[in-house]
Every structure is written in structure tokens, then in C-alpha cells.
Amino acid sequence: MATAPPSSLPFFGARISLYPMTDRYVPVILSAIDGLKDAGLEVETDEISTFLGGDRNAIWSALERVFARAARTGEHVVMAALISHGCPGEAYCEPDPLTGTARAATTHDGKGVPASAQWSLYPLGAGTYMDVIYSEIARTKQSGVFSGGAHFVSKLDGDVCGVLDGVRGAFDDACGQVSHVVAHVTLSANSPTKKKGTSI
Q1: φ and ψ of 60, to 5 deg
Q2: What is the pLDDT of residues 109-126, one digit of tens each?
Q3: Residue 142 pLDDT > 70
Q4: Which domains, ranges and CATH numbers included, belong to the chain?
Q5: Rounded Cα–Cα distance for residues 103 and 56 (Å)
């Protein structure tokens, strides 16, 4: 087991699970995640989820691309994403020289694909964590994707590109204030369920 030196960049990665509400779920999932390793990312897939590690731009682009591909099938699809920056428990990982950087080209495959999301932010280890959370919720309001609050989450609506850009803007800003930040995002597209206008 290797321990990353103190000068190494913070570990950054995401873990995603894709749930197509169709008996065609296997081809929908496989086509959505096809080519992930071609983006130069560390990719580990098991029966529950797929882990992505590496360049920030490449990871955020991959999240958008995977969900947009699944959504464009027309099936009702949901994707849960757990995103983490600076976790001290990741010391067992070999340090990656690109981890934490944003050098890759950013792509936006989710433009024009409608989606709804529920999003939660966890600035860990900060005594003023609620100030950070309220500030970043306000940021999503300014970006135009915030559509209301609910128990434990903020609700976001827009196209996949706009929703994930809103989440990333808030996440990156929180990373500038707190060393360990986690976000949980659940995206939904093509849902037959009518939205209920609840807000706080």
C-alpha cells in the first residue's frame, strides 16, 4: 500500500450507478458507459457501480456523457453519482499526477437533454459547513437550475449540461473553502411521474 506524499494533489473521483427502467437495461447501460476508459480515466466497474478517477474535466464530462446517452434512448433512466474531493481515507491509492487537475478538454454531450436532479453537498470537517451549503445553494439559484428545496436535497431542473454545470460550479467553489467535499447527485430523465411543486 502506498501513501500519497503531503505535496500530492487532493484525490478526486466519482462513483456512478445507472438505473434504466426497462427490460432493455443491459444494452442501455453498456452503450452509456462504452468508451469510458478511452478518456484516460481510471475505471473500475462491479455489479453495483462504476468508479471514475483522474482529471476533473474528464470526469465531469464523462458523467454528462453517460447520462445523456442513456436519456437519449427515451427510456426512463436514473443515475446516482457520488463525487468526492480530498478524502483522507484514499491514502491507500497510488498518487495520480493528473488527480485533482482540470487539464482535459470539457465536452457537453448533455445539451438539450431535459433532466431533473436532487443534489446534496457535504463540506466535511468545516465548523461553518452550513454557511458553505447555503452559499452553494444560492449559486445554483444564480445559475438558473434551482427549482426548489425538499428534505435533505435541493431540486434542480434544466438540460443535463446545465444541471451538472450548476452542481460542478457549487462543488468546485466549496472545494476552495473546505479540504474534503462530497456531493451526492441523483439525475432523472423521461420520468412518467408528474412533478409536484414543493419548495422551501
Answers
A1: -60, -40
A2: 888 999 999 999 999 988
A3: yes
A4: 12-189 (3.30.70.930)
A5: 8
DSSP SS3 for 163: helix
181 contacts 84 by C-beta, under 8 angstroms: yes
Non-local (6+) Cβ contacts of 175 within 8 A are 10, 85, 86, 181
Burial zone of 49 (CB within 10 Å; 0-12 exposed, 13-18 middle, 19+ buried): middle
Element (H, E) at 18: strand 12-20
Q: How far is CA 9 from the centre of its chain?
A: 20
Number of residues assigned to the chain:
200
Reported confidence tier of residue 169, pLDDT bands at 50, 70, 90: very high
Residue 95 clears pLDDT 60, i.e. is over it: no
* Grid coordinates of 181: 467535499
Number of Cβ within a 10 Å radius of residue 51: 15
| Residues 38 and 66: beta-carbon distance below 8 Å | no
| C-alpha span between 191 and 96 (Å, rounded) | 38
CB 39 within 8 A of CB 58: yes
Q: Is residue 170 within a helix (H) or strand (E), and if so which, with residue range?
A: helix 160-175
Find, among 107, 118, 100, 103, the residue nearest to 64 by Cα.
Answer: 107
